[in-house]
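Extended Data, panel c. Modelled sequence:
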Amino acid sequence: MPKPKDRAAAPRRNAAFGFIFVSAVISAMSIGIMVPILPNLLRQFTGGDTASAAEWNVVFATCGGAMSFLAGPILGMMADRWGRRPVLLVCLAGLGLDFLFMAFAPSLAWLLVGRLISGATSGVFSTANAYVADVTAPEKRAQAFGWMGAAFNVGFLAGPALGGLLGSVNLRLPFMAAAALTLANAVYGWLVLPESLPPERRVARFVPSKANPLGSLRLLRSRVGLPGLAGIYFLNQLAQMVWPSIFVLYIGYRYGWSPATVGFVMMAGGVMGVGVQSFLVRPVIRRFGEQGAMLAGAVASLIAFCWYGLAPNGWTYLACMPISCLAGLMNPGLQGLMTRLVGVDEQGQLQGANQSMAGLSSVIGPSLFGLSFAWAIRHPSFGLPGLPLLIAAAIMAGCVIVGVRLRVRPQGRARAA
């Protein structure tokens, strides 16, 4: 029988997960609101030139990614030393400030300042993942990370559609709405979100040597199987960078979709993603394990990138969405495996290292995908407007190869707080 203390802890853990789930939904909605609009705002600043807007999008994403690369290990170490709650609140405030810059910036330079602030405080989802690891038993984490993925998709159900509708009125209006939602989320968290990491489970001191990208990589090399999983995580993050880098510009250029249409298509993708991560993750992991779920998601992503890159019209593009949404199986399995290979006092460092790798992908991805897209549309005779998506497919093929060869045996070292 569970001890009285265990019975009392269960409702606290469930309530804490509920708080973090709602926080993730609101953050995703805020980001989703601006996704269909930012490339069009950049195009407005560049006089309507799509290729120039793509190049500026590269600059913005690269600078934000560089800041995230540097800040990720610092935020992760702070979360292990002082707890998840204060780091999460600071990150939410930074994201809200970035939206305010985008809402009122008079020039590209001011927009860039906002991106730098956002990159320096871009630990919302990595800190939320560490929080989930704190309050969830190791064997249940993959399912919990599936729910976190569903939270992100729930936010994208309404966010892009709302952003597209507001953007049709005024391109700055979506950013005002996103700022209001994000800052309200920060206030909500300050009022009701409990701390997930008790003092006795925190690291004794802040270690500067671990609070940098190179130091954080030592953790990723310290466990058997973790380097391979980290490599898959990086490659997947790099491939997924194709979406923020060129998605809006690509489908607007190739299919002529309006911002409102883009928003509704993203909303439809979010509905499918929620279905996969809410109802398929658990049975797939029960049947095939975390590594099987990870591989299934990687294969689905590979197929989808190839399909999207070659789709000659909008209807063909839409037909691939049921396959594409199965990519949502990948991250829960991957995160579940990774968090079970480190201790409770290292979850923040792990997520900080993951954020750093995501930041590095944000440095490389925009140039890789944005510049290849700009080249493709400036050389239409080659007939390859989907070139960036085909490059992403090749990267996902690397994920599949590494995942098939990898042998991971999680020991369940980490215990829930």
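DSSP finds 17 helices and no strands in the chain. This feature is highlighted in the accompanying rendering.
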